[in-house]
Design a protein that fits this description.
By secondary structure, the protein is mainly α. It has one domain. It has 4 helices and no strands. α3 crosses α4. It is elongated. The protein starts with a helix and ends in a 6-residue tail after the last helix.
């Protein structure tokens, strides 16, 4: 599944195979979007603490998750 509209519609399917595949696709999309926005925030000078507060996680969690992928 690649089209966001299709994935969103499939997430409420009565067929577990379709619904679970949609959940997996949404999870991947969410991870990609989060990494993109964390990089965006860091590029704009945001601290790890500011990012963590918006994501409602600890500073340590967000730093650990993204420090390597963002090269920071």
């Amino acid at each position: 599944m690649t089209d966001a509209t299709q994935v969103a519609a499939a997430a409420s399917s009565k067929d577990p195979a379709v619904g679970l595949a949609a959940v997996a696709a949404l999870r991947g999309l969410l991870e990609s979007l989060e990494e993109l926005q964390v990089a965006n925030a860091r590029d704009r000078g945001w601290s790890w603490q500011q990012i963590a507060a918006v994501l409602r996680v600890s500073k340590q969690a967000v730093h650990k998750k993204y420090r390597r992928s963002l090269g920071r």
